[in-house]
Amino acid sequence: MSTSKQTHDHEEIKKWAAERGGVPAKVRSTGGSSDNEGILRIHFPENSEHRQELKEIPWEDFFQEFDEEKLDFLYQNRKADGELSTFHKFVNRQ
Asked: Which residues contact 43 (CB under 8 A, 6 or more apart)?
């Protein structure tokens, strides 16, 4: 059985991403204004067909926006079959 967890702990998020080869990124052309480059994502470059759509950013910039937007990180550690999962999404902090 796979279960989801939710956090806004920066170190926990960085550790989860690093274990899967993930890096902080933004989706190009989704920001809606000149001062907002786009929607936050964790990008997995080794498994991505959408490299052109994503711009890698520093963790510091990622977490600044993450905290300003009061987001939580909803994620799954393992799939039902036990394989590492890359499932994640950003949700409003409760």
From this structure: 22, 23, 24, 25, 54, 56
